[in-house]
Predict the 3D structure of the following.
Amino acid sequence: MLTLFAEAVRLRAIIHGAVQGVGFRPFVYRLAAELRLTGWVNNSAQGVVIEVEGDKEALDIFLSRLEPEKPPRAFIQSLETTFLDPAGYRTFEIHPSDDDGPKTALILPDSATCADCQREIFDPANRRYRYPFTNCTHCGPRFSIIESLPYDRPNTTLKNFVMCADCRAEYENPLDRRFHAQPNACPVCGPQLEFWSAEGQAIAARHEALLLAVDSIKQGKIVAVKGLGGFHLIVDARDEAAVRRLRRRKGRAEKPFALMFPSFDAVQSSCHVSLLEARLLRSPEAPIVLLRRWTVAEADSLAPSIAPGNPYLGVMLPYTPLHHLLLAELGFPIVATSGNISDEPLCTDEHEALERLPEIADLFLVHNRPIARHVDDSVVRVAAGRELVLRRARGYAPLPVTLPEPIPPTLAVGAHLKNTVALAVGREAFVSQHIGDLETVAAYTAFRHVIRDFETLYASAPTQIVCDAHPDYVSTHYAERRGLPLTYVQHHFAHVLACLAENDLHEPVLGIAWDGTGYGLDGAIWGGEFLHVADRGFTRVAHLRNFRLPGGDKAIREPRRAALGVLYEIFGDAAFEMTDLPPLQACSPSELKLFAQMLPKGINAPFTSSMGRLFDAVSALIGLRQVAGFEGQAAMELEFALSEDECGAYPILIRAEQPTSVLDWELLVRGVIADVRAGTSSSVIAAKFHNSLVEAILAIAHQIGEPRVVLSGGCFQNKYLLEQAVSRLTEAGFRPYWPQRLPPNDGGIALGQIMAAQFSN
Ligand code: ZN
Ligand code: ZN
Ligand code: FE
């Protein structure tokens, strides 16, 4: 049984929307009183802030009742939550409005279509019947249409649409739901749909365009649909041939595809949905939520190649009128994956889409409302009883994270994979939307574009810049060329600092940063790190025992290489005789010969302490995966394989060495090999492997003795690892912390870099 919450916790919710002057604060007061929660609520320049404290279950109920029970005129456009340590509140209070705070320009994220707008587009008597660009003051596009501030229509991408008399009247009427709704539009005056052939020829317009797109999807065609923050590629999720064709054309062999379901009920017929997951699915952020599928025995009609071998589905609900209309006509779930080639940035312009996607899409459903900037769908999962954001973009970006102290204008350029950038102004750190892996020219262009965009939007010229310590990252090179005072930040330190920032936490802490790759202070590849963070700096107090990676970065896509590195570290040349083991069987004699030359001499076989690569190695050793389609696939499959039964653990040794202890995995790997040879099931081995790592976390936490332990880095996207670590640490009297609003992966690095700049100022 998991022990996650031994005592009271504090929930902070920051809410934007129509929540001021509509009786929202008294409502919050009553709800808190009913649930016996303490804390406060106030209005500030940054929105309504609620802090409530009590037991976790009551807080979850509080959260799930906010939206459905709020006063009739209140409207929630965005709601971000963070669970924090209790502050010891004894009563619940309504604090006086605090309008004195610095008014930083606040750009709201795009927000899912509200219930009123949904009703209108399905009401034949309404003038917005079937109008796909319906929105109001409560919902609709924001971040994706704003060209500059202040947020007025001439500064949005709707500037060329002149409002008709009806729209104008709504816009000017303080009692109307569309009073000052900048993107206000209707079928008479607003943007319109068109349906294009792959050659860019307009085949149909308006609702007929939508109906033709619906027919094409039903016929198994791949339709590129221009949505809110970019293009989706859409196919019928039940059509295996169409899904396979999409995979082939997009160059995406195995990475799971996201789905959009026509309704919440339809989601429940395919997946388990908890209370918190249900709230997230239907929230104004409307992210992709990772949900556990019903077991295969209750199989649904979804195409097998949507998420092969994956017990989870990435699911979202329609979040614009266009999606609502499309899904209502279709009545079945669709694959809605980002409109790009492999991992390039999202396409946002219909003419660009024609050029970039002709080999992929058969047809194009487009419109003439320009997209100011790309905004991908956000991805979240629920772990350890909380929302865990894995990709932060639509619905969340660019809402700020508040810093402990003000900072001069600072730009942080992030890392290399899953890149985001951040611009800090005063006490606000604005973390950009997900940009992606900076592996292609297109991605690097998008990266520079987002930086320029943020500097312009927030009218802030940075006076200093922060980058990763990796000398070869293109983000580092970019930072160096800016000619500003520059701070290099060690990658795993940044992971831990990002988690401090969003958890309102001060050092000292023990930071556990486990990921795939990060440049170490000694020039080696780090990734299984225990950092004692204190006095604005860190000491590496322990790390995973090093092993060589034959081929360096090539090992990211070939877990068998990590396995050979691990075997060689233990057995030396004898490793090459262990031909009964799956990773050796997966190599040709010539490959093995090559590795046998690289490993002893360390030629193109750098040392690493990467936990991600240890996951890969074990995944290969038990025969789960030798060659991966994407980074982290082998580790994910190890997580999916594990049995939740009590399986025990392998012995693991912490060698206390000065100045840095070593987490030695040798006994663990020997145990794995013995189990493989004994024919033990991979689900038991996977569970024992995870459990051993949790025990190692505990052992080192005890050794360091720091009461507060921060868990971050891409490995903690692993739900089992995170939940077990949190549970065991809590039981042992430690206080664990982990990322919530920002991803544990490298998407959070930019925020950590901002914190490091603050530390070094
Ligand atoms: Zn609305
Ligand atoms: Zn109009
Ligand atoms: Fe990382």
